[in-house]
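About this split. The held-out portion is used to measure sequence recovery: a designer receives only the structure tokens and must propose an amino acid at every position. Recovery is the fraction of positions where the proposal matches the reference. Here is one held-out target exactly as it appears in the evaluation file.
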């Protein structure tokens, strides 16, 4: 009985050993087959993680590029729309200003607002052009200055509102003074027309305006017994002030002296001319030039 058990146990041990040996043999054969497979895929398999990371990075960069390009286009479109809006505002303002001679409803105050706003708009446009690398918008300001100069030069100054317009342009449009100083014909024409307006005003009320004097404080003393003509006096006063400001723009001293002489011949008032400009002339020394003052 014991012998049979021992024989059976021995048989089982042998079978187990054989199974273990067969399993190891199969494993060895599998490893050999794996070693015999072609290895050309190994480099690709090694760099595959790096390629995956690179593709992800490129995808992120492309997405970021598209985003920033979109933002750039949006900003460019916004700037273009803003520029077009400013250009339209500039055209509207300038058109309204050029309507002044024919539209009696346009006031000095409105012209002041329009000029200041036009100056602001064209400054913004010039800055926008420079930031975009486009043509400088300063050329448009020069064009506007020439339009204003021609507009003023075309006025007769017989109406106080025209004198107001010339003074507002001179004060509120910064390029205007330099422009007409460079083109002296504008200054000379304005002074000549204002002299004509003063002459016409004096011819209507010769005794009143010829008798006006200036006191030590720069004010006016009306002639005794004269009937006060307030509207005419205000027109005269506006012309006086405007004439003085435009006279400063003359660059030729000899013509300046000639203009002062013409001013005195227009108002026939040597005392007032002397107080205003520091010089006056004897009408008897040039009776032809002062013919109306010697009557």
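Reference sequence for scoring:
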């Amino acid at each position: 009985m014991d012998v049979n058990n021992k024989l059976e146990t021995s048989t089982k041990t042998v079978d187990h050993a054989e199974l273990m040996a067969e399993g190891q043999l199969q494993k060895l054969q599998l490893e050999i087959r794996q070693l015999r497979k072609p290895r050309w895929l190994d480099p690709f398999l090694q760099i595959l993680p790096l390629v995956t990371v690179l593709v992800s990075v490129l995808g992120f960069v492309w997405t970021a590029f598209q985003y920033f390009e979109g933002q750039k286009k949006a900003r460019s479109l916004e700037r273009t729309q803003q520029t077009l809006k400013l250009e339209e505002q500039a055209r509207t303002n300038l058109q309204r200003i050029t309507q002044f001679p024919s539209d009696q409803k346009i006031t000095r105050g409105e012209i002041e607002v329009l000029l200041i706003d036009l100056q602001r708009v064209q400054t913004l446009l010039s800055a926008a052009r420079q930031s975009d690398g486009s043509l400088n918008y300063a050329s448009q300001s020069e064009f506007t200055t020439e339009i204003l100069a021609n507009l003023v030069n075309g006025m007769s100054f017989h109406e106080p509102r025209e004198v107001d317009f010339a003074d507002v342009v001179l004060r509120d449009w910064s390029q205007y003074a330099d422009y007409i100083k460079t083109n002296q014909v504008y200054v000379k024409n304005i002074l000549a027309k204002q002299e004509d307006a003063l002459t016409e005003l004096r011819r209507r009320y010769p005794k009143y305006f010829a008798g006006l004097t200036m006191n030590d404080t720069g004010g006016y003393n009306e002639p005794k017994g004269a009937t006060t003509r307030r509207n005419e006096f205000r027109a005269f006063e506006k012309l006086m002030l405007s004439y003085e400001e435009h006279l400063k723009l003359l660059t030729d001293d000899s013509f300046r002296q000639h203009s002062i002489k013409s001013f005195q011949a227009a108002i026939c008032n040597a005392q007032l001319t002397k107080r205003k400009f520091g010089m006056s002339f004897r009408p008897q020394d040039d009776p032809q030039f002062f013919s109306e003052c010697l009557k």
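Annotator remark: The mean pLDDT is 82.
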